């Protein structure tokens, strides 16, 4: 369950052309290592496991490299062959002594992360973190990134110097910039995915550096003064040591009493038995109350099923709308096997492309049909009022696609920060398990272009860019939501004045 949860919150439930397919551990296995930039402490990092031999790790690394190059739709989109091969050789040379599985993971993850596509990665070893955190203390602070700087948002420490809104400049001698760089060695995109690093900070810090009994925090106050303080590791109650949202907060609907505005929060598009009924009931409530304004908040949504994203759109318009502008698929024997098994990979449109073309071919899935335009499923409770969409750096995968559906089809107004995922991106995945270390990883096999603002480097641009300030963070204010409520107030006032 833990791995499924972490994928959901990172946005690595990969999506097919029209239906997202979640990647499970699959056909094969392998991965490797490179010198770690940080030295973990002597405290235990994981359970006792037999070290992996040099040959085992080198074989796994070679396996990972081979699968990336054979399966990926465009492995050199954000890197090049020379840089990729240099890193591989560096990692291979660094495997000169036996290592435990977690230390090997730290090194092996770098090869997949070097593609910077946000979807191809060696799975984060959250089970190891969870086993450790149940017994030992972990990093006690909740953090947020603003403009690339790290700030305290909440903490489990009695240290009064670390108030919410205080900037953290270093932890245990590591600068914030260096910590971000090490996070990028585990999970990466073309730009730093700061919201992801903040929401998974405890996990990523532990995975990068190992355990520590305490944390020396260098900080800077709002007035420019600075200092250092040490806080002990905190032992959280079972299940509370994760940085990310628990599964029970996947989605929520409410009518804000002060403004009579509907607020639909969707923190995940991960498939669930309850989602269909929840969405229908939410829009039925809007219709019964004759609510004229709706805010959909996907700022913490890392992705999930494209079908669920389209399902929400079907409650927002009755007109045909543009879905995607381009779709490419790398056909391989491994991918054909997954579609024959029809367990995790079931989308019929993609299956037809895969099964009708030879392995090794990169197929233009829309060559004959052109951009995809679909007509929404008929709904009884379609919303016809004013729509606002809140996005952030953590808006990823299927959630970033949802933002594009809204913006490209003029269905609503986008407020906040640009999604972390570009409008042209690689997606979907063929899953593998390394033969010796048993580390699992996914390799993207498709490329999707949104119908507007097409870019390999930029997500959907908000109509109203809003970035929270440290002061707002300290005061517990929601800058984007407050700004949107003011927009609605102005819109209502202008309608009344007509």
Q: What labels would you give this structure?
A:
single chain, disordered N terminus, six-stranded antiparallel beta sheet, six-stranded mixed beta sheet, alpha+beta
In short:
By secondary structure, the chain is an alpha+beta fold. The chain contains 15 helices and 21 strands.
The end-to-end span amounts to 54 Å
Helix-strand category: alpha+beta
Apparent shape: globular
The main pleated sheet reads as: 6 strands, antiparallel
* Cα-based radius of gyration, to the nearest Å: 23 Å
What is the tally of beta strands?
Answer: 21
Average per-residue pLDDT, rounded, comes to 87
Number of helices: 15
User: pLDDT under 50 segments (min length 5)?
Assistant: 1-47
Content of β-strand: 15-25%
Helix content: 25-40%
Characterization of this structure:
The chain is of the alpha+beta class and 498 residues long. 32% of the residues lie in helices and 19% in strands. The chain is built from 15 helices and 21 strands. The protein has helices spanning 2-10, 54-71, 81-94, 101-113, 126-133, 176-184, 194-199, 201-209, 275-288, 306-313, 333-341, 348-355, 398-408, 470-475, 479-497; strands spanning 121-122, 141-146, 149-155, 167-171, 174-175, 214-220, 226-232, 251-256, 261-266, 293-297, 321-324, 326-330, 362-364, 372-374, 386-391, 413-416, 424-427, 430-433, 440-443, 446-449, 464-465. The strands form five sheets. Strands 2, 3, 4, 5, 6 and 7 form a six-stranded antiparallel sheet that branches. Strands 8-9-10-15-16-21 form a six-stranded mixed sheet, sandwiched between helices. Strands 13-12-20-17 form a four-stranded antiparallel sheet, covered by helices on one side. Helix 2 runs parallel beside helix 4 (101-113), helix 3 runs antiparallel to helix 4 (101-113) and helix 10 (306-313) runs parallel beside helix 13 (398-408). Mean pLDDT is 87; it is low at 1-47.
């Amino acid at each position: 369950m833990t791995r499924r949860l972490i994928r959901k919150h990172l946005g690595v439930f990969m999506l097919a052309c029209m239906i997202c397919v979640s990647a499970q551990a699959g056909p094969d296995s392998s991965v490797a290592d490179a010198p770690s930039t940080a030295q973990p402490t002597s405290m235990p990092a994981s359970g006792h496991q037999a070290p992996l031999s040099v040959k085992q790790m080198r074989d796994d690394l070679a396996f990972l490299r081979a699968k990336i190059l054979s399966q990926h739709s465009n492995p050199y989109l954000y890197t090049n062959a020379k840089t990729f091969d240099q890193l591989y050789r560096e990692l291979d040379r660094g495997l000169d002594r036996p290592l435990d599985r977690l230390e090997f993971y730290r090194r092996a993850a770098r090869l997949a992360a070097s593609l910077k596509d946000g979807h191809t990665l060696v799975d984060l070893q959250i089970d190891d973190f969870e086993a450790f955190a149940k017994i030992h203390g972990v990093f006690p602070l909740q953090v947020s990134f603003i403009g690339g700087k790290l700030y305290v948002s909440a903490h489990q420490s009695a240290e009064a110097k670390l108030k919410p809104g205080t900037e953290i400049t270093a932890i245990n001698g590591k600068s914030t910039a260096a910590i971000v760089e090490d996070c990028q060695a585990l999970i990466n995109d073309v730009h730093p995915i700061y919201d992801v690093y903040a929401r998974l900070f405890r996990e990523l810090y532990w995975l990068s550096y190992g355990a520590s009994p305490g944390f020396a925090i260098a900080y800077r106050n709002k007035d420019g003064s600075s200092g250092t303080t040490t806080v002990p590791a905190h032992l959280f109650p079972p299940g509370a040591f994760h940085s990310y949202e628990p599964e029970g907060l996947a989605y929520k609907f409410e009518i804000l009493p002060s403004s009579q505005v509907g607020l639909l929060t969707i923190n995940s598009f991960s498939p669930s038995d309850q989602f269909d009924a929840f969405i229908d009931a939410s829009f039925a409530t809007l219709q019964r109350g004759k609510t004229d304004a709706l805010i959909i908040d996907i700022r913490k949504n890392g992705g999930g099923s494209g079908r669920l994203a389209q399902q929400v759109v079907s409650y927002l318009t009755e007109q045909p709308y543009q879905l995607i502008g381009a779709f490419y698929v790398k056909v391989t024997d491994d991918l054909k096997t997954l579609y024959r098994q029809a367990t995790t990979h079931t989308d019929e449109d993609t299956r037809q492309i895969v099964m009708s073309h030879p392995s090794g071919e990169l197929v233009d899935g829309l060559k004959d049909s052109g951009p995809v335009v679909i007509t929404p499923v008929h709904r009884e409770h379609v919303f016809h009022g004013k729509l606002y969409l809140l996005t952030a750096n953590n808006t990823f995968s299927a959630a970033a696609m949802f933002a594009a559906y809204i913006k490209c089809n003029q269905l609503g107004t986008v407020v906040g920060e640009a999604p972390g995922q570009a409008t042209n991106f690689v997606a979907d995945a063929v899953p593998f398990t390394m033969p010796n270390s048993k580390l699992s990883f996914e390799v993207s096999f498709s490329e999707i272009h949104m119908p507007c603002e097409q870019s390999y480097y930029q997500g959907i641009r908000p109509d109203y860019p809003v970035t929270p300030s440290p002061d707002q963070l300290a005061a517990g204010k929601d800058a984007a939501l407050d700004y949107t409520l003011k927009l609605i107030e102005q819109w209502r006032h202008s309608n009344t004045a007509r």
